[in-house]
Amino acid sequence: MKKTIKKARWDATLDTDVCDKFNNADLTLTLKLGFKQVNPSGGKATGTYNDYGSNTGTARKIVRWTPAAWNTWKQNFVTSAQKYWHGKFWLINNFSELEYEDSGVKYIPNIWCRFKLQGSDSMPSSVHHHTIEVVRLDKSETWFGSHSRLYDSLDTNSVQKGTDSKGNPIMQRAHVHEVGHLLGLGHVDIGKPHCPPGGNTNLGPCYGVLDKDKNSVMGQGMQLRDKHANPWRTAIIEFTKKGNAAKASDWAPKTSRHYPRTPAEVAAKTSITKKPNR
Ligand SMILES: [Zn+2]
């Protein structure tokens, strides 16, 4: 069985055709991005563009994209962001959902979370989930104020976003953080007293106060947390109509492979993390 649901943020495809005694079901989130060049006005080779695309932002020097620079940038963006988010979580199926048989034995699969990023500037805009504009910074510029729909040519580089309590730099490649936003994830400390959900969730403390939170990819760093499996959990709940995303034990995320289980193993809450002898 292969089923797809299309949402405003992404498409999700659940594939149980791959299930056997060793392989779980695949759940692929596909994000379709339209890329759009921001070039200096009037067809000029150089110009300026303001931080955050805002009238009040600082003007930064930009240069016109060349076809080669544009293709390289897009390819690097797509490849590296897809690699970061793809295949990192397995969701534990504690329900009797998606049961199948292999060699006469019944199994219940867990869910492997896959990610596909498609980027194109030729698709009609109605096909994209999001359109992203990109400025090409002049060599003299080291920083530009970007957000999840406006990037600069340096956003795929690893840069220092913060410092931990021991004085170590915390590095981040901005585009993987921004793709997290596009998947539906918010900043790490939203919901804590210093970052109330109703306030401005882009303020400094929302990016983490404790080292552990600062190092989250939805903070200032590059580390994944269980919470980051929520887009896939939301999708599997929609497919199966079973479970509640607010309940941590429903479709609980694991960061290592958990093999399919028999109904008896599910009932006994057995985890199978090493290739079973079947
Ligand atoms: Zn952010």
Defining traits:
8-stranded mixed β-sheet, 278 residues, two-stranded antiparallel sheet, 5 helices
How are the secondary structure elements laid out?
Layout (H helix, E strand, L loop, with lengths): L1 E5 L4 E5 L9 E14 L7 E5 L8 E5 L3 H19 L3 E3 L8 E3 L2 E3 L3 E10 L9 E6 L14 E3 L5 E6 L5 E5 H10 L27 H4 L15 H11 L12 E2 L8 H5 L11
Parallel strand pairs: 3-9, 3-10, 10-11
Antiparallel strand pairs: 1-2, 2-3, 4-5, 6-9, 6-14, 7-8, 12-13
Bound molecules: zinc ion.
The site of zinc ion has 3 residues, from helix 2.
The structural domain count equals: 1
Give the N-terminus to C-terminus distance in angstroms: 24 Å
Kindly estimate the percentage of residues that lie in beta strands according to DSSP. 25-35%
How would a textbook summarize the main sheet? 8 strands, mixed
**How many E-type strands?**
14
| Helix/strand order, N-terminal first | EEEEEHEEEEEEEEHHHEH
Low-confidence stretches: none
Shape annotation: globular
Question: What does the average pLDDT come to?
Answer: 95
Task: Describe the structure in your own words.
By secondary structure, this protein is α+β, with helices and mostly antiparallel strands. 18% of the residues lie in helices and 27% in strands. It contains five helices and 14 strands. Helix 1 crosses helix 2. The longest helix is centred in the first third of the chain and has 19 residues, at 67-85. The chain is globular. The mean pLDDT is 95.
